Amino acid sequence: MNCYCGSDLEFHECCEPYISGARLAPTAEALMRSRYSAFSVGNAAYLLASLHPSKRVSETRESLEQSFSGTQWCSLRIISTSSGGVGQPSGQVEFLAFYRSGEEIGQLHERSRFVCENNQWLYCDGDMLPALKLGRNDNCWCGSGLKLKKCHPD
After folding, report:
1. CATH number of 11-151
2. Nearest CA-CA partner of 97 in 36, 42, 27
3. Which residues form the YchJ-like middle NTF2-like domain (predicted)?
């Protein structure tokens, strides 16, 4: 099965080793992708562990688990990365994530900030950005790989 984060790798060779704790994400983008996958599989423990300690007070396992029950994550698109590579102290990742909640389709467009402390990347926070409008010839939000006009023409 391809990884939830949209890479061409299998889940067990892409994000699962980070989520399971077998390896640390080497870059801010790898952490972003693995956090998206953790939302997709409902792993609150990883989401809290990869959150900067200063932010953990405002996020609880219970609130994360509640959000899992009503949300199906459909696809992730990385728009840009700034710094956040191996050996760098911080980075940013702009992404677009599509989700389904009941019958509603939504998108989360965010520029996330990450820091690397003790060789571990951590999510700090992010700025919510305006939703992006997809064109008919863009890939569909659902992750099918088809053009929007062919997959979900409405």
Report:
1. 3.10.450.50
2. 36
3. 27-126
